[in-house]
């Protein structure tokens, strides 16, 4: 599925052109699409129009992975580099593509025709290897498909003339439960909310026990109640559709297959808290969904379910704008997301104050995950008892899981909370499983001895990522992949995360090449613990999880690669002398250190 | 009756709206910090002021004081943690204390002494960073920048100039200067700006008066930072 318009044109954009600084990020995304970089003349123009300094604008450009001050190719290609893509052969395909196009990965071809880079997980774990081309998603890549891409780039074929099959994103589900098996009735939730009033609706939500589905699990009723109670002249509803956690794609499915439920849930929230404006923060990687989402918003306006006088209620006006991200995992953190909505660098704010009292533009704001809004709509429609019929007392209802990796049937699964990992592995056809990474790179690595544990807020909490590794996999590769992911995605604001994530990656490389000693492992766990305890936000607090879980639960992975010495330098002492040997013209035995100097 | 809470067993009074750091500074209790300066909005980025409230880690500079809370500050665990954070700052930049004009009056160096950091532990990154000596009165040595954003805040909030900014992400994050060339000389910066006097390290330095005060007679040569406080505070006094 792909937008009908020529993807390279700048139609169907999200900025309203109202000249406020909040438009900056959306304007930059448009410029990147048009010029394949942000030209300096445009930076000057934006600086005048939005009254922002040029260095501020450059600061925003350099924060987001998909924005560039240097010229990228007319075809900007990003290969998804999550571990699950790699397990499906993405690295080899990327090399084939690079060879066919005649460029190095990470560069732009001299004729500016094409640029090729790796990027963090683009949310296609069930249909990878995947890539982005000028923002649009290419799925299920094969050598044959890579050749098709090379031919069309060489022929300069406009993207809208490429075979649609290259861009097909499947949205099938593997297992449905109460939520996906229920029929959605347009407007029913909003009508119920308007008829019974905010208090009754909040009570229903509270009785249902619905908790935030992004992974943190905060009570949805409490969040809405706090926001409604905050003293302010306006309030905002924000949907967090920045599904960046590696291995998760269930929000992509909901955005594609159940858009109406999401918008109904957001509208319901608006009715409860008293809001007239909502935003969907759509990750840049899901740009292909922008036009279909806008179409459904328009349909709902025509049907009286959105916009002015919703369901004929004269004083109930609420509309939704879609705001695109531009490649920054940190913007999934709710306060960083709000900064990004305001057109800025996505740096998480200090909390308190929390967004429910001071969010978008300083006004009380509800930020909920896509699944949470969808569930809220269904609870308003069907009642709290219906929701509580499955799940556990502390985690009522169900959870959508994005299952990928080593199993026969990857995809979207809806399971009641409280389901064991063993049952999930059985359902998706996973065999000889070594470990499961639950909750993405920031989540936990679960060994086979813990497969009786369950998906629940009181046991293993997750936003929905479920990546499976069988006994043929080298787990250390996954740990390395996640560690590099965090180094790339750290926003750079606080010391422990900015420096710690780089230092961890360096230490781990030392392990990978067999140069590490027991002391290096100790250093990694000390660093990891420091990052957990002192980082400014959840990213830094979880960035060391892959290494800490690896050291704690799979120590042999590391120990089998250690050197027996108590100390090993991080560099090759003999190789470091090479420059001196060249300068002095010496190459005699005394100018060399035996065994690399160790 | 005034509100109060406890830091390491000492009762500290506070008024509504004060952070733990505000109350500690008023009471003369030293909580190590680098990015905090009471004249500016708290930032919470260096994380040195991380303290424990009932076992929970929080930044003292951004966390509101609360009636009856029990704060741990100078414990073995927290000092060890701070020493590690300091080592990370040294790893990331190029800090060569013996050759630095700021030595002896540098807050990074003084906090490192306070926390007992005497030697490096990790392999340093040795980044290649430039020096901006374009301005007639002020020099910027990016090698020493610790990204505390005090100059960013001072220039934006005090001087109303927004000369300084942060660009890049993660370990690539770096200080930038708002001017067509990116050089300080072409910016709106003036050496009498507030932004010229807030740098806690030797990244922003005045020209023409190198080593005016001999080593051995500098601010932290006289007394430890826990007694004399921030270098910026003394800079203000010296300029008056």
UniProtKB/TrEMBL annotation, chain B:
Q: Where is the 4Fe-4S His(Cys)3-ligated-type domain?
A: 77-116
> Required co-factor?
[4Fe-4S] cluster
Q: Record's SMART domains?
A: NADH-G_4Fe-4S_3 (SM00929)
One example of a Gene Ontology biological process annotation:
ATP synthesis coupled electron transport
Classification via InterPro entries: 2Fe-2S_ferredoxin-like_sf, 2Fe-2S_ferredoxin-type, NAD-red_Hydgase_HoxS_gsu, NADH_UbQ_OxRdtase_75kDa_su_CS, NADH_UbQ_OxRdtase_Gsu_4Fe4S-bd
Q: What does the UniProt keyword field contain?
A: 4Fe-4S, Iron, Iron-sulfur, Metal-binding
Q: Which Pfam families match?
A: Fer2_4, Fer4_15, NADH-G_4Fe-4S_3
Q: Does the keyword Iron-sulfur apply?
A: yes
One Gene Ontology molecular-function label: 4 iron, 4 sulfur cluster binding
GO cellular component terms, alphabetically, are: membrane
Q: Which domain of life is it from?
A: Bacteria
Q: Where is the 2Fe-2S ferredoxin-type domain?
A: 1-77
> What protein family is recorded?
Belongs to the complex I 75 kDa subunit family.
| Protein's UniProt name | NADH-quinone oxidoreductase subunit G
């Amino acid at each position: 599925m792909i937008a009908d318009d020529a993807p390279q044109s700048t139609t169907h954009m999200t900025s309203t052109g109202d000249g406020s600084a909040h438009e900056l990020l959306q304007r930059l995304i448009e410029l990147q699409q048009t010029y394949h970089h942000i030209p300096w003349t445009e930076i000057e123009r934006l600086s005048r129009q939005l009254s922002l300094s040029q260095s501020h604008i450059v600061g925003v450009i350099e924060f987001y992975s998909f924005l560039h001050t240097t010229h990228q190719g007319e075809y900007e290609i990003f290969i998804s580099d999550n571990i699950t893509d790699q397990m499906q052969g993405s690295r080899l395909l990327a090399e084939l593509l690079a060879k066919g196009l005649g460029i190095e990965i990470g560069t732009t071809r001299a004729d500016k025709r094409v640029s090729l880079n790796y990027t963090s997980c683009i949310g296609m774990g069930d249909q990878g290897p995947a890539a982005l081309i000028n923002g649009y998603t290419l799925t299920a890549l094969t050598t044959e498909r890579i050749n098709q891409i090379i031919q069309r780039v060489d022929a300069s074929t406009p993207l809208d003339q490429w075979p649609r099959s290259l861009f097909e994103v499947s949205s099938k589900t593997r297992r449905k439960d109460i939520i996906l098996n229920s029929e959605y009735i347009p407007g029913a939730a909003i009508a119920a909310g308007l008829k019974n009033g905010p208090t009754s609706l909040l009570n229903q939500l509270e009785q249902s026990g619905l908790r935030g589905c992004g992974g943190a699990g905060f009570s949805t009723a409490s969040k809405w109640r706090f926001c409604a109670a905050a003293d302010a002249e306006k309030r905002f509803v924000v949907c967090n559709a920045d599904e960046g956690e590696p291995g998760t794609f269930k929000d992509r499915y909901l955005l594609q297959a159940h858009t109406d439920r999401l918008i109904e849930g957001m509208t319901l929230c608006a009715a409860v808290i008293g809001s007239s404006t909502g935003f969907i923060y759509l990750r840049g990687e899901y740009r292909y969904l922008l036009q279909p989402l806008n179409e459904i918003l328009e349909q709902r306006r025509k049907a009286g379910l959105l916009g002015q006088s919703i369901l004929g209620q004269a004083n109930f006006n609420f509309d939704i704008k879609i705001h695109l991200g531009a490649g920054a995992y940190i913007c999934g953190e709710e306060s960083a997301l709000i900064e990004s909505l305001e057109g800025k660098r996505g740096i998480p704010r200090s909390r308190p104050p929390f967004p429910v009292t001071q969010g978008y533009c300083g006004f009380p704001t509800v930020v909920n995950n896509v699944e949470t809004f969808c569930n809220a709509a269904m609870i308003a429609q069907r009642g709290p008892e219906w929701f509580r019929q499955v799940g556990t007392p502390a985690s009522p209802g169900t959870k959508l899981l994005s299952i990928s990796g080593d199993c026969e049937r990857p995809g979207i699964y809806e399971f009641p909370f409280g389901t064991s990992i063993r049952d999930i592995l059985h359902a998706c056809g996973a065999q000889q499983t070594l470990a499961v990474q639950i909750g993405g790179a920031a989540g936990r690595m679960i060994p086979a001895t813990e497969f009786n544990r369950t998906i629940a807020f009181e046991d293993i909490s997750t936003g929905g990522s479920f990546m499976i590794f069988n006994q043929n996999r080298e787990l250390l590769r996954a740990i390395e992949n996640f560690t590099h992911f965090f180094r790339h995605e750290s926003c750079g604001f606080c010391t422990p995360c900015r420096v710690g994530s780089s230092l961890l990656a360096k230490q781990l490389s030392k392990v990978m090449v067999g140069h590490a000693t027991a002391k290096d492992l100790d250093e990694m766990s000390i660093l990891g613990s420091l990052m957990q305890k002192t980082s400014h936000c959840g990213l830094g607090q979880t960035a060391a999880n892959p290494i800490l879980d690896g050291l704690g639960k799979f120590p042999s992975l590391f120990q089998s690669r250690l050197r027996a010495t108590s100390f090993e330098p991080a560099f090759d002492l003999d190789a470091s002398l090479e420059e001196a040997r060249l300068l002095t013209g010496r190459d005699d035995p005394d100018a060399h250190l035996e065994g690399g100097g160790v | 009756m005034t509100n109060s809470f406890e830091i390491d067993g000492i009762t500290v009074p506070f008024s509504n709206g004060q952070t733990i750091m505000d109350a500690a500074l008023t009471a003369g209790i030293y909580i190590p910090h680098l990015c905090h300066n009471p004249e500016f909005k708290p930032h919470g980025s260096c994380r040195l002021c991380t303290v424990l409230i009932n076992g929970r880690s929080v930044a003292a500079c951004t966390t509101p004081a609360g009636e009856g809370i029990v704060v741990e500050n100078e414990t073995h665990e927290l000092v060890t943690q701070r020493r590690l954070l300091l080592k990370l700052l040294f790893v990331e930049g190029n800090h060569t204390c013996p050759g630095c004009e700021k030595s002896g009056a540098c807050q990074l160096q003084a906090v490192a002494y306070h926390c007992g950091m005497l030697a490096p532990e990790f392999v340093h990154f040795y980044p290649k960073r430039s020096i901006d000596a374009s301005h007639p009165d002020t020099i910027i040595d990016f090698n020493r920048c610790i990204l505390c954003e005090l100059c960013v805040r001072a220039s934006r909030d005090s001087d109303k100039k927004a000369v300084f900014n942060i660009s890049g992400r993660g370990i690539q994050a770096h200080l930038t200067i708002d001017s067509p060339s990116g050089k300080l000389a072409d910016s709106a910066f003036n050496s009498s700006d507030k932004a010229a006097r807030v740098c806690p390290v030797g990244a922003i330095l005045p020209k023409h008066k190198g080593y005016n005060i001999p080593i051995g007679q500098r601010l932290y040569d006289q007394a430890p930072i826990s007694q004399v406080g921030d270098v910026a505070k003394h800079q203000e006094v010296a300029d008056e």
